[in-house]
Design a protein that fits this description.
Chains A, B: This is UPF0284 protein DIC75_12120. Two copies of one chain form a homodimer. The first copy, chain A, is of the alpha/beta class and about 350 residues long. The first copy, chain A, has a single domain, classed as Rossmann fold (3-Layer(aba) Sandwich), CATH 3.40.50. Chain A is about 40% helix and about 10% strand. A seven-stranded parallel beta sheet of chain A has the order 3-2-1-4-5-6-7, sandwiched between helices. In chain A, helix 1 packs parallel to helix 2, helix 2 runs parallel beside helix 12 and helix 4 runs parallel beside helix 8. The first copy, chain A, is globular, with a radius of gyration of 18 Å.
Chain lengths: ~350, ~350
């Protein structure tokens, strides 16, 4: 193959690896056109719960739903689940603030869904969520020496855009849509930045309170106290968390995501990673050559990432699984739904 | 010392020990006189949350409360917390069904508080809770090779009595009161058994549905799938879970608890342990000789056990801490509140 499976070697060989996924909602995902993570804007609120169910049990049985996007792409959660089956590492699911009750056990910090940052402070309980994230980070430290930390927040690329810009980055963000609705996201972001300007929020946690989502303070808190090596699994949303950590003067984790995020020209991901002063590893699961029409759509810019999929692929590789074995496992799993 | 710290050596030397505590409520604790785990019957519903806060953070700050019983005994949670500080092992807290929202992160299975089994099925969602317990057991297996599993359910000795008797044991149970309100518990139990007789509940999970509390199916599920060594931390409540596992034909864990449970003449603990066909290890933290008047009251039969205290002391010992060091640590911690 001409392209390496992983863009660079992060030089991490975990002995006791753990994966954790921080789930949350933001009311922004119910704004028509913002989020591609669900069949309708309202139903995007259910996506983290269905993803959690799929990753934990291997199937969605609580509602009649298939883990495919409206255009027939397997969801990122199917990729994450296939890696759970390959590696035996089941992620710790963390409920940072969901609109609906999960159908599988979650480590719950007892937050609430994020509000619409155009109208109100999005995460009023940001200080408590950061602190509970710190508690979770200490807890997970006891039971692992490496943490792959990802997220699932429909609409979260828009909160990420708001947070990155409020922190001073000239950022753009990625999208689950092939055609990134950047005009809409920009419009939301301008309104949010205007409101932040009025309230005078300037400290990193104040910015999260005003414009973020509940995943962000929880993930930042976890990264602040986690004692072992940590990689952030994801694209622009986890990058926003990394930027918050930098602004707080804390350790800034590196990222692991898919080449589809890197290759999204609208996101400018690589530039913002450099601006934040961290590094990203890009995994190429060769979905173009796998022989699955839905997975191939990732390569033309659909879905791209989510539910820690890029990190799950990376973790399997770091644990010693061969690229061919990894790609075949994804193909076999998603073929059950084809 | 004439008495050994631990009654027998369980021959377990954990490499990757984990402790987990299953928290739940039963409406029986609000029946006046049933539970000593709280300043008033209604406030017993808060006890698991305050215990969780103390064990996790080292202090109760969410409400103005001291971790002492009305008679001035340090609560069992203070013992558990002191062992967290000694060993560095922070327990995984599991929310099986609580009346109030926890103030610290919990692994939540999204159950509900148990109903009053005299009037209604106590745990209607028993099958889902057992299954989610199985999921938790698989998850915890990945990150540890030994599990000390305890509980905190105010009023739970009464549900334990109902379950043990419904399973056919001539059991009595222990109590946090020095004077065990056995007449009251017996009266509740007769009503519950009469109702079970009418409904015809006979299978172990049917009995839990009718007469148990949410902790029981969750703990039973965890023990069913946990891959490593497991000890149950607690007295009659965990023994009821062990009896359910035996009735289900599953592995029956051994127990670790305090000598104060063994020496409660009203509980007949040792006999029921033998009837269930398992073994129990009894830890003697020498609270009589420690020089703390509140801890000494354990020796005259108050409190006795709870929040995995006996298991936490046992775990510290199995991890190589000396008895004198363990007892001194408990004394130092509770003295902060004296």
């Amino acid at each position: 193959m001409s392209h390496p499976f992983l863009s660079q070697d992060p030089l991490i060989r975990p002995h006791r690896p753990m994966m954790a996924l921080v789930l949350g909602n933001t009311m922004l995902s119910t704004v028509p056109g913002i989020s591609g993570a669900g069949p309708t804007p309202e139903k995007t609120l259910l996506t983290p719960i269905l993803d959690a169910e799929l990753v934990t049990t291997g199937a969605i049985t609580s509602v009649p739903a298939r883990p495919n996007t409206p255009t027939g792409c397997p969801t990122p959660a199917t990729i994450t689940r296939s890696m759970v089956e390959l590696t035996g590492i089941a992620p710790v699911l963390i409920n940072a603030g969901l609109a609906h009750t999960p159908t599988v056990p979650c480590l719950d910090v007892y937050g609430r869904p994020g509000g619409d940052p155009r109208k109100e402070d999005a995460v009023p309980q940001v200080a408590a969520l950061f602190e509970r994230g710190e508690t979770v980070g200490r807890l997970l430290s006891q039971y692992s020496d490496f943490l792959m930390l990802g997220e699932c927040v429909p609409g979260g690329t828009t909160t990420a855009l708001c947070v990155l810009r409020a922190l001073g980055y000239e950022a753009s963000v990625s999208s689950a849509f092939a055609k990134n609705p950047l005009g809409l996201k920009d419009a939301v972001c301008r309104e949010v930045l205007a409101r932040i300007g009025e309230t005078g929020a300037g400290e990193p946690l104040e910015i999260l309170r005003a414009a973020g989502d509940p995943m962000m303070p929880v993930a930042a808190g976890i990264a602040s106290t986690y004692a072992g090596e940590i990689l952030f699994a994801g694209g622009t949303q986890m990058l926003a968390v990394a930027a918050v950590l930098k602004a707080l003067g804390k350790r800034v984790p590196r990222l692991a995501t898919t080449v589809y995020v890197r290759d999204d020209p609208s996101a400018g991901f690589v530039r913002t990673v450099a601006d934040v002063g961290t590094a990203a590893y890009f995994v190429d699961p060769n979905f173009a050559g796998i022989g699955h029409v839905g997975l191939a759509r990732y390569c033309i810019g659909e879905v791209k990432e989510g539910m820690g999929a890029g990190g799950a692929l990376t973790l399997a590789y770091l644990m010693g699984h061969e690229p061919g074995e990894i790609t075949r496992k994804v193909f076999d799993f998603v073929s059950k739904y084809a």
